[in-house]
Structures are given as structure tokens and as C-alpha cells.
Amino acid sequence: MAETDEDDRPEGRLARMLGRVRSSRWLLAAAAGLAVLAVALYEVPPAAALAGVVVLALVAAAGGLAGPARIRGKPVRAAGTPVWPDTGMKLLVEVMEDPCFITDGTGIVRYQNNAATERFGAGRTGDPLSFKLRVPELLAALERVGRGDTVETVRFGERVPTERAWVARVAGIRMGKREGRPRADFIFVRLHDETEMMRVERMRVDFIANASHELRTPLASLTGFIETLLGPARKDEVNRERFLKIMLEQAGRMARLIDDLLSLSRIEMKAHVRPEAAVDLARIVDQVVDMLGPLATETGATIRRAVADGGHVVRGDRDELIQVTANLVENALKYGRDGGLVEITLAAERGPDGADGRLLTVRDDGPGIPPEHLPRLTERFYRIDADQSRRRKGTGLGLAIVKHIVARHRGRLTIRSKPGEGASFSVWLEAAKAAEAPREAS
Ligand SMILES: Nc1ncnc2c1ncn2[C@@H]1O[C@H](COP(=O)(O)OP(=O)(O)OP(=O)(O)O)[C@@H](O)[C@H]1O
Ligand SMILES: [Mg+2]
């Protein structure tokens, strides 16, 4: 407790005792008044009344009448205990967005800021910090800091109610000189939530690992074929031709992957700038259908267009909207039913806030997507069946690109599917102002 930390010199002790008597003066005055009444009205012997008041004064001097410490509000200023960090200190703690606690040298909470109350609930008078944070590493650090002058950093995780990662900084505060005071007067604990940072970091690491893996596979295949062509197959005319074709395919795969990665990073760099050009979506649909004609012939699928009457000019970037439409139609052809039907519809639809917009939907009648995959489909490199995607020359980046482009356009991407009943991908985009004509090259 704070008492053990105090100045033990006789002058100090006397000053402390006087201080305590002074802080209990109203109580003692009331007791003296009662003693006079008792002598006057009830014939209590004056010596006994005087003895009562003296005993009360001694109890006060020993600290027995000190009121309980409070967590918020008035400073704790029990006589002899260190002066409570002033309002400036509280203001500093309050200004911080992170949850912060100030405890006494033994870990009893004396003050907590609003962020701490919001995150960990209101404090109760005199509760130790361990009631709120049952983290052995943190409590051990609190103990060490209370005894020394160190500042410690402790990382810990929470599983309930949700998984969170915290980093705590724990520092001792001394209000006066250190001599003869083995403990810090107060301990400052600041908790910083690192969950989001860790998530982003994990995503970055995963992304690099995935990208490297995707590049390494065709590269390994290329190296293998080069070695074979230089060695055992040096004079093998028939196989040389076959191997070179495979090598070309693998090199193409690497080039596609690099193009997609560059495209993704370009879109991310422009994420905060909304494209403003007026673009005719109906025209884009026509262009994409022409472009993917050969793929449709290959899979035997039929592409049907249902473009509602009226203009379909939206606010956007033409090249990026071609990329979105092409990705969705290509997916429908690749993962839909061979010889099936791919339907592209384009119609007017109001946005959530009533804004005039257009809804582009690409629907196929293939095997569909099991529900557990739906939320993850737009993650980079996420594929339901990686082998099938690779066979179809996929990199697993298509829908991630679509998502980023749609977000940059302040649009909305909706994916619906029931296994066995095909899949439907819809993109809503805000319409351009009526006066704006599409500005685009043919
Ligand atoms: N219409 C669809 N029907 C069923 N599954 C689909 C459909 N569209 C996408 N998928 C699934 O979602 C995964 C991710 O699609 P995405 O477009 O991001 O990558 P990809 O097509 O594999 O490669 P890329 O688009 O880069 O060429 C696909 O691998 C596929 O498993
Ligand atoms: Mg794709």
C-alpha cells in the first residue's frame, strides 16, 4: 500500500499525522460538540467526554478516518498519500484515444479515461486492475514497474468477445524524490488495439507468399523444360516442339499474373479518386461480347444480351469498366456449364440513397458456388478449385480487381448463387448526369 512508500523520517511522520488530523477536522469538531452536549444534558463526566474526543483525534492521526479513494472525479488526497496526478495529468489521459488507466503503486485503479470505460466498463472504487484485465504478463509488468523506474511493453491477445491483439505500455510515475520510496506513486497503463494492424500485416504476408508461389510454379516448369531441352531432349525434334509450346504457355501465365498484379496496384493507388467520365455501359457489353466470342465458341456457350431500352451512360472509367464486365463474363464462360447459357442484363435501378443508376448482371447456369465460398470470392488468389482455375488460365485475381474497381466507382457488387442453379454477379453504378454524353474513343 502507499503507506509503505512514505517518508519514514520523524518530521515526515509528524507532518503526515497533523495532515490527517487537519483533514478530519470537521468530524472532530462535530465530535467535540457532541461531547459538550453530553456533559451538559446527560451528566457525562467531562473527563470521559474529553477522553472520547482525544481517542477520535488519535484514530484520525493514525489514518483510520481517511475516506475511500475514488476512481473518477475528485483527486485522492488522503493525508500522507502522494498527491493525486493533477487535472493536467487527467486531461492528458483523457485526450488519448486508447484506453488508459492510472493505478496506485500497487495496481489499484485510481483513474480510467473514457476510452477505457467504453472498452472495459466503468471502474469500481478501489478495484485492482486485475479485475478488469486478467492478463498474467500485464500484472507481472505492473508489479515490476511499481518497484522500479522502468517502462515496459506487453503484448497480449483476447479471445472473448472477439479476437483482439493488444499492446500495453506500462510506466511508473513518481511525484517526488525517489529516496526511501521503493514504489512508484502511480502507474500509467496505456492499451493500444493492434488487431487491425495485425490483420493488414497478415494479409500483406499472405499476399506476398501467394504471389511468389503463383510465379514460382510456372518458373519452375520453364526451368525444367529448358534443362530437358539442353540435355536429354537436345536432339528430340518431336518433343522439342511440344515442350516449347508448353513453355510459351507458362511464360504467358507469368505475364498474365504480373499484368493482373500491376492492374490491382494501379487501381489501389487511385482508390480515393472517383472516376468521372461518362461511359456507355451498353456499348461496353457489346465490346466484351465480341472480345470473348472465341472463348464462348470454345466452351460451346451461348451469350444472350438483355439490354433495356434507354441510355445506359454511367460515371466511370471506360477501361476499368471493360475489365469488370470482361472478368464477369469470362468467369461465367469458364466456370458455367459447357454448352450452357450466359445472360447479360442491363437495366435502370435506383441506388440505396435513391440515386439514378444502372445494374449490370451476368448470370450463368453452371454448377454455382457453395455458400461458404461466397464471402471470400473477392479475396486475392481465392479460388474454389485452384486446378480448374489454372487450367482455365485464371490467376485468382479477377474478382479482387472487380471489387476494387467497383469500390473506386462508389458502386456495389452483389454475388448470388445456389449450388446447382448457376451464379449471378451484379454491379450497380451511378448514372452520369442527363446532359453528359459518353466521351470515349471507338
Ligand atoms: N460464375 C462462376 N461460377 C462458379 N464459380 C465461379 C464463378 N465466378 C468465379 N468463380 C470462382 O471464383 C474464383 C475466383 O474468381 P476470379 O475471377 O477472382 O479468379 P479466376 O477466374 O480464377 O482468375 P482470373 O479471373 O484472374 O483469370 C474462381 O476460381 C472460381 O472458383
Ligand atoms: Mg476470373
List the helices and strands and how they pair.
Layout: H1 10-23, H2 25-42, H3 46-61, H4 87-95, E1 100-104, E2 109-112, H5 114-120, H6 136-147, E3 151-158, E4 164-173, E5 186-193, H7 195-230, H8 237-269, E6 278-280, H9 281-291, H10 293-299, E7 302-307, E8 313-315, H11 318-335, E9 341-350, E10 356-364, H12 386-391, H13 398-408, E11 412-417, E12 423-430
Parallel strand pairs: 7-9
Antiparallel strand pairs: 1-2, 1-5, 3-4, 4-5, 6-8, 9-10, 10-12, 11-12
Bound molecules: adenosine-5'-triphosphate and magnesium ion.
**Helix and strand run:** HHHHEEHHEEEHHEHHEEHEEHHEE
**Main pleated sheet:** 5 strands, antiparallel
Distance between the termini: 82 Å
Give the % helix. 40-55%
Write down the Rg: 37 Å
Parts with pLDDT < 50 across at least 5 consecutive residues: 1-8, 67-80
What's the CATH C level of the largest domain?
A: Alpha Beta
If you average the pLDDT, what whole number results? 86
Kindly state the number of beta strands. 12
Name the beta content range. 15-25%
CATH-defined superfamily of the largest domain: Histidine kinase-like ATPase, C-terminal domain
Basic shape: elongated
Number of helices, where a helix is a run of at least 4 consecutive DSSP H or I residues: 13
Structural class by sheet pairing and helices: alpha+beta
CATH topology of the largest domain: Heat Shock Protein 90
